[in-house]
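in:
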């Protein structure tokens, strides 16, 4: 018996409800004061591949706790009023993250289509992480 709703269906559903920015559009906005990039990949992915310069790291598993002001793990950046651009490796996890953020009440939310892979293919700047 198959799953009621697999990850592909969840991602497709999320993509219908959220805004997607192209890598080119995202790259143009990397130094904008009103934009916060949020990297939801796992720590080892950031160490291996680097990240968008200035991006906040919020691993997918901690996202709801980081977003909610009532949480002891809340990150103030999520209450900054900035437009939040989520990204992951290729756009699946970030679509789900953007939908979650919207469901939780953040309204200026989008994700980077194609993820960090597309970012690098379009020669977006990369910041090294860790040693």
């Amino acid at each position: 018996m198959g799953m009621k709703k697999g990850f592909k269906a969840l991602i497709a559903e999320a993509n219908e409800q959220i805004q997607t920015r192209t890598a080119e559009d995202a790259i143009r906005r990397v130094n904008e004061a009103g934009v916060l990039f949020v990297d939801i990949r796992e720590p080892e992915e950031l160490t291996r591949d680097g990240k968008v310069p200035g991006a906040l790291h919020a691993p997918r598993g901690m996202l709801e706790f980081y977003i909610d002001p009532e949480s002891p793990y809340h990150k103030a950046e999520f209450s900054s009023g900035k437009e939040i651009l989520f990204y992951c490796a290729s756009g699946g996890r970030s679509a789900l993250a953007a939908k979650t953020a919207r469901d939780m009440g953040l309204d200026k939310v989008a994700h980077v289509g194609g993820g960090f892979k597309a970012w690098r293919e379009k020669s977006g700047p990369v910041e090294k992480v860790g040693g």
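note: The beta strands are 19-21, 35-39, 56-57, 83-87, 109-112.
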